[in-house]
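Need tokens for this chain, all 182 residues.
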Amino acid sequence: MAIERRALVLNQNYEPLNVCAVRRAFVLVYHGKAEVLETAEGAIRGVATEFAMPSVIRLHAPVKRPRPRVRLTRTEVFARDEHRCQYCGVAGTELTIDHVMPRHRGGPHEWENLVAACRPCNHRKGGRTPSEARMRLMREPTRPVATPTALFGQYLERYREWRPFLLGWMDRATRAAAASAS
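Here are the structure tokens for all 182 residues:
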């Protein structure tokens, strides 16, 4: 269905900016603010005209934006921790979110204080710190880098026509992250 379909929005320099509804993408193209680079199956029907459904659009004017950040959600915490308990290492889908420093003791709800934990480990740790519970973290929690993979990777399977526009940016971001780490 066209209403559920999404479109990839590229900046003037082809940098991926965001994902929007097809309706919003069509309005940007219709008003001359963007051009269609890829279309999807189907069409948007007007009274007397039929328009191709945009899948990838590029803005005509460059947009300055702040550096993107990965949103703090359960899904993103599990993805960062590779769907493994950070105390015992068990992989699975029955994971919970654990605050390393418990919230009732002033621990913030931030990337650096959240880890994925299996139910038994989370219960065992309770309202204590890992050292008080005599438990060790497999690795310290950190804020993930907002690479194109982290921001747009979830769409690659469903919208295959986006791949040429995202993979180049993903490769550049991976090389840049590797260069800054060394």
